[in-house]
Design brief:
about 90 residues, mainly beta, two-stranded antiparallel sheet, 1 helix
Length: about 90
């Protein structure tokens, strides 16, 4: 499931043992330059369903300049200020 939108790093043990209920907690490395997935389709007992994807602990990311630490509304890439944040370029 996680491979649809990133690289799977860790699965919550309760999910593997089916003790988690209807939620799945995964630690996934994602490419912040790509659009985030909002829903995924999965198959369970022969029935296809959709699940909403919730992201926790996402840093501010500017899709304009590719820098972590601010969003597009606060981007100074076209101005004279220098970024002091990590760049993916």
């Amino acid at each position: 499931m996680a491979l649809v939108f990133g690289t799977l790093i860790k699965i919550d043990v309760r999910m593997v043992n089916r003790k988690m209920g209807q939620f799945a907690r995964l630690l996934v490395e994602i490419d912040m330059k790509q659009e985030l997935v909002e829903k995924i389709m999965y198959k369970r007992v022969g029935i296809c369903s959709f699940a909403t994807v919730l992201f926790k602990c996402l840093p501010a990311f500017c899709h304009e300049c590719g820098i972590v630490g601010h969003d597009v509304a606060d981007c100074t890439a076209s101005g004279s200020k220098t970024h002091s944040h990590r760049s993916f370029s």
